[in-house]
Design brief:
single chain, 350 residues, mainly alpha, ABC transporter transmembrane region fold, 2 domains, 83% helix, 0% strand, transmembrane, Type_1_exporter
Length: 350
Amino acid sequence: PPLTFRQLLFILKPYFWPSRLMPSWCLNRIRCVSTWVFIIGSKVSSVYSPLFLSLATSALSSSPGPDYSRASLYAGVYCLLSFGSRFLKECQNLVYLDVKKVAYAEICSSTFSHLLNLSLHWHLKKKIGVVIRAMDRGTDAADTVVTYLFLYLLPALGECLAVCIIFLVHFQQWELSLLLFSSLLLYGFVTIRITLWRKKFREATNQKDNEIHERATDTLVCFEMVKAFTNEEFERGRFTEAVRAYQKYSVTTSASLSLLNIIQQGIVQGCCVGTLILTAHRVYLGEMDVGDFVAVNVYTTNAFQPLNFLGSVYTAVIKALVDMQNLNQLLLESPDIVDAPTARALPPPP
């Protein structure tokens, strides 16, 4: 059965609210809350900082003459907020380290305890390799989902949405908001589609790489047989063929990545050109000033910056969700015999 959102949250609960059974659980809960405070503070600082750059630019281009003191003040606030955004981001990473360590240990311990409580019949029919891989990959996948999905991708999408709202509410330009929102949707759609398309090339590259090592290993292990039947040229031809096939798919993989980067940059720069042209027209009409022109440019560039690794993040999250689904199937296994809630403990042996 597919992994439901409730089951996903159940597995990831130690990353958001550690159990009382784990050491330093109270401190780790404080760290969890602090992590989200740092994330919100980082994104708020990042969203507000271009507004002060806009004020600094407007102060320098004011009609009576450049206002140096106001420009310096606003420029200082802009730099302070930019530094604060990155500082809070690093604080979030630092504070959350212990939480991830304890959460990883809690998931491993609870999964292992669950396996020990299953019946003998289940253990006799299980495949030990499959169980161990599902447990190891599932615990690693939980860490991946929290890191990439909840701590990176969702805050980045929230920041993009906040920029669209600023264009609509603060600058009162619905055209800018619509253009940026549409470009972000197109960027995400194209990135995911091309990433899924590139997946077959990456799989073929890995397969050809395995064939190279398999043929080299087989030939060198069976060296006596190759010499006995004078098959050196035949084995060399098979190995060379595998290398050429690997190079072919490797070049295709690199070329598809370049294609993805070109299309992404085309969308980003196209959006920048559109927003700047619209803003320049509003400045010409007197509805906006030069400071707004600078702020729009910064906002547009910053909105796409967290999405540079969207393809890699999407691939990692999808793979992690598959591994977590296998872990969830282990956790759904129930023992044949369960003690009643009112059962008394057996007396100790004499």
